Structures are given as structure tokens and as C-alpha cells.
């Protein structure tokens, strides 16, 4: 059975750019476009992996959603879904961050613009854990 991937990003062009290589690689892809719709989609779709944008309806929406899914009080079902955070923050600001169990509970990062080969490699690595 194909792995289900949920893309949570408010930019339809980014969603399309991610969807194409993922579907070509055999993944079943769904998408949501905000923190709120993303949380609902996680519960409805029950994805095997989430690709989560940092900035959506607010500059910190991705961080907030990561906390809801993997932070204190999150369900074990949510915590079991790996999150690959998608960001351009490292390219556009001097800010640097990485996965952190307390502050930023995600399993990996991938920079925009996304290299399709690197995307597939990262997803395979996270799904094997």
C-alpha cells in the first residue's frame, strides 16, 4: 500500500511542485492550506508523513501546528506522524533553527526551493524510522 503524505502549505504553486514528484514516486498526496485545515486533514486522512510550511496564515503557523501535533498534550497518534518542515526562512533571514524536541518538534527540514530528488530522499529516510 502506498504511503500517504499530507502537504500543509498555503501556496498552491508550492503544493503543485511537491505533489508532482511525490505522486511520480508512488505516494498518495493530499493537501491543506492553513493551520486549521491542516489539523483537520491530519485527523481525516491519517497521513504517514506531513510536509509542513513554516509561514502560512501567520508567520509562525507552522511552528504552532508542529507544537499541536508533537508537543506537550499531543496524542500518541499525532506524535507518531513524522513532520518534514518546509522553509525559506534560512534563505531570507539570518535566523537558524533545527529540530528540537521541546521548541520545534519536527523530524526534518527541507529548504525552498525544493530539489525533488532531495525531497524523495528525505521522505524515504523519515518513513523508515
Task: Write the element-wise H/E pattern from the N-terminal end onward.
Answer: EHEHEHHEHEH
Q: Tell me roughly what share of residues is in helical segments.
A: 40-55%
Q: What number of domains?
A: 1
Structural class call reads alpha/beta
Number of helices: 6
Task: Kindly summarize this structure in a few lines.
The chain is α/β, with parallel strands linked by helices and 129 residues long. The protein contains six helices and five strands.
How would you sum up this structure, described in words?
The structure is a single chain. By secondary structure, this protein is α/β, with parallel strands linked by helices. It has a single domain (4-128), classed as Rossmann fold (3-Layer(aba) Sandwich), CATH 3.40.50. It is built from 6 helices and 5 strands; from the N terminus they run βαβαβααβαβα. The longest helix has 13 residues, at 12-24. The two termini are 17 Å apart.
Topology:
Blueprint: E1 4-8, H1 12-24, E2 28-32, H2 35-45, E3 49-53, H3 61-70, H4 76-79, E4 83-87, H5 89-92, E5 108-111, H6 116-128
Parallel strand pairs: 1-2, 1-3, 3-4, 4-5
Amino acid at each position: 500500500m502506498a504511503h500517504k503524505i499530507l502537504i500543509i502549505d498555503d501556496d498552491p504553486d508550492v503544493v503543485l511542485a511537491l505533489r508532482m514528484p511525490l505522486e511520480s514516486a508512488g505516494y498518495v498526496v493530499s493537501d491543506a492550506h492553513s493551520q486549521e485545515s491542516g489539523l483537520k486533514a491530519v485527523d481525516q486522512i491519517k497521513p504517514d508523513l506531513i510536509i509542513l510550511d513554516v509561514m502560512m496564515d501567520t508567520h509562525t503557523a507552522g511552528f504552532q501546528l508542529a507544537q499541536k501535533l508533537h508537543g506537550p498534550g499531543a496524542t500518541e497518534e499525532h506524535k507518531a506522524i513524522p513532520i518534514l518542515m518546509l522553509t525559506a526562512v534560512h534563505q531570507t533571514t539570518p535566523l537558524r533553527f533545527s529540530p528540537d524536541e521541546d521548541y520545534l518538534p519536527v523530524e526534518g527540514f527541507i529548504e525552498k526551493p525544493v530539489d525533488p530528488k532531495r525531497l524523495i530522499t528525505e521522505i524515504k529516510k523519515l518513513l523508515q524510522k
